[in-house]
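Sample log: M18 family aminopeptidase.
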Amino acid sequence: MEKLHQELLDYISASPTAFHAASASVHLLREAGFQELRETEPWRLLPGGKYFVTRNLSSVIAFRLPEVDYRAFQIVAAHLDSPCYKLKGKGAAACGGKYAMLDTEMYGGAISASWMDRPLSVAGRLMLKTEGGVKPVLFDAGVDMLVIPNLCIHFNRGVNDGKPLRVQSDMMPLYSLQKGADIKAQVAQMAGVEPADILAEELYVYNRMPGTVWGPEREFISAPRLDDLECAFSALKAVIEAENLGNPAVACLFDNEEVGSGTRQGADSDFLETVLTRIDRAMGKGEEAHEAVRASSFLVSADNAHAVHPNHPETADQANGVWMNEGIVIKFSGNQRYTSDAVSAAVFRAVCEKAGVPVQAFYNHSDIPGGSTLGHLSGRHVSIPSVDIGLAQLAMHSSWETAGAKDLLSMVKGMTAFYEAALFSGSDCAWNIMA
Ligand code: CO
């Protein structure tokens, strides 16, 4: 367990942005013998093969093919992006003839207060001019570089009574005491390139605090970006370690969930659909066989869930709340904001029961709508039975989130058992689950 926690925390540290999370994922996949495919080239696939393909270098789909002919795809989806602040335009703004601050906008729905008074840095990607065109380069400053200072309580007596925090006026990170200081010049220098060779960039502010496992029983794990790197990491472990596959095991790690998934590389794109079509074509399945395989497939959409809050239990439905360290959460919603229904929940529950993995059911407080997830967005393109799951955590979208330390193992075991289950749908809504 200690080793698994450390692996997750290393993965999170290596993943300040979705680009880095994709790169860290690719690193784990390569180490496990997965071969890279490119969307821009024809694919030749072999039974028993392990492959991955990236899109925008910020989304990854990894898959393993069984040695035998197959009847379904077994898919797990999670997301690699997290709410944060993104640098705008020229980067720096000046104040009072002295300070240089960074001009940023919010990416996704961050809890602003959680970004104040802690060590921040900058990471993202640079697009560099080359002899023949342009090329991407990953960038991570990797040092304490910024702070977003709170206004002291003496000037802000109502601070503990709640005060709106505006991105443009309250959340600009302090960068330098030189008003002309140019962060882009520093980034170029740190990256070892000429400033003029950076034609464009996507740079984000991230929390540098390393994650930790804590509590009298070491029952908690806290870190930045647990939503959803905890599920992404679990999906990677499962697709790498699952044995005796009866069907292709597919792990989708998408970018842009926090901004609605509607990008070329998001869950609401044709990325997954295209990959599934190309796998079947490469494996010699005609159009009719492809449709049958697709119809028999199953998606597990994994994104963290809200544990009952210790100070605000009233925000949970007391009868249907979920708790840290009590297993994988299956999320339900009457208006289908989550994709789980009786059929998909029963299939997933049966898989977990066989594997000895605990599960618990989550329903939102009926008067407080929750978030939505990847499942129904992927479902617009690949409309297959899907279950929404996650791990119970606190402070979702804070720059420092807390989850149950024991649950990580449950998620890895549950996803691995799912891949190993060789599912297929015999008739509408009836499923065979062969261990
Ligand atoms: Co999430």
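Observation: The two ends are 24 Å apart (CA to CA).
Observation: The pocket of cobalt (II) ion is lined by residues 79, 227-228, 257, 303-304 (CB under 6 Å).
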